Amino acid sequence: QVQLVESGGGLAQAGGSLRLSCAVSGRPFSSFPMGWFRQAPGKEREFVAACDWSCSTTYYADSVKGRFTVSRDNAKNTVTLSLQMNSLKLEDTAVYYCAADVSPYGMVNMAASAYDVWGQGTQVTVSS
Q1: How far is residue 31's CA from residue 79's CA, in Å, rounded to a whole number?
Q2: What percent of the chain has pLDDT over 90?
Q3: CB 17 within 8 A of CB 85
Q4: Residue 15 has what DSSP assignment?
Q5: Using CA atoms, how far apart are residues 20 and 32, in angstroms rounded to an integer?
Q6: pLDDT at 5
Q7: What are the residues whose beta carbons fall under 8 Å from the beta carbon of 14, sequence distance 6 or more?
Q8: Cα dihedral 113, 114, 117, 121 sign
Q9: pLDDT-derived band of residue 30, with 50, 70 and 90 as boundaries?
């Protein structure tokens, strides 16, 4: 059973940076697409970034393009998905979730419905 655990959230000032990580466990060969989503208070969950098994193909929400970078480390027996967040804005404040599509023929996707395994989320708060 695949499990995802996020880390790296916290408090940052506007204009600052944070790096989120998502550790994958429970599957020795992890070639499935993964993504980052976020949910701010009172708002629906929204797509942030996603990549295929090697991050040779990446997608970004327009609101984070040029500021956020998704990457992936497929080391032996472990997979870590990262999100480098630079030039943070107040509107980036949200709970950030890591997600994976572990279906047999999963393709990198921006739709939350395409992902079937989710982490517990990590809070990112940007202050002025």
Answers
A1: 9
A2: 78
A3: yes
A4: T
A5: 19
A6: 94
A7: 88, 89, 90, 126, 127, 128
A8: negative
A9: low
> What pLDDT digit, counting tens, does each position of 57-70 carry?
999 999 999 999 99
DSSP code, position 63:
T
Integer Cα distance of 116 and 106 in angstroms: 10
Q: Which conformational region is residue 26 in: left (phi greater than 0), alpha (psi within -120 to 50 degrees), or beta?
A: left
Cβ–Cβ contacts within 10 Å for residue 112, how many? 16
Token readout for 107 is 């393709």
Q: Do 85 and 103 contact (CB within 8 A), yes or no?
A: no
The CA R_g of the chain, rounded to the nearest whole Å, is: 14
Strand order through the sheet with 79-85: 3-7, 18-25, 79-85, 68-73
How many C-beta atoms lie closer than 10 Å to residue 38's C-beta?
24
Q: How far is it, in rounded angstroms, from Cα 30 to Cα 2?
A: 9
Residue written as tokens 């709970």?
Answer: 95
Q: Number of H helices and number of E strands within the chain?
A: 0, 11
